[in-house]
Amino acid sequence: MLRYNKCCGINHTLIVETMVFIMSKKNKVLEFLASKNGKIVITIISIVIIYGILLAALESNSSFVLGVTLLVCAFFGWTALNRITPQIFLFMSIGGWAIYLLIKGLLAIVVGAFVAPFQIGRMISDYTYQYLNTK
Predict the structure, then answer these.
(1) pTM summary value
(2) Can you say how many angstroms the Cα of residue 126 is from the centroid of all Cα atoms in its chain?
(3) Which residue of 2, 33, 61, 105 pairs with 38 in a disulfide if CB–CB is 3.0 to 4.6 A?
(4) Distance CA 118, CA 129 (A)
């Protein structure tokens, strides 16, 4: 049986019930995002957002937006390339290092355009899963 306490014209019990309802819906959304299907949805949304930003930046000639998006892609691509390449130190001249870093940077941007949406989706899903398990 619900008791409705009125004070100053405000129904406090109704406010509490509404907050409980909202929190239960929030937990359902978080549980979905932490699931395998949630990871797929987040990845698809990340792909659409990243490629949408790239396309919009190219169409509008906005060098700042394009630069930031390419830097994000390069970051994720660089980490992906570091997982593939062995962790060895190469002895090269300064010119050799410049060519190596230029090629790896360009390759990181290309690889990052494909890897970034999946990594962002995985990170969001993992953080959501950790948030749900800490409650």
Answers:
(1) 0.59
(2) 10
(3) 33
(4) 16
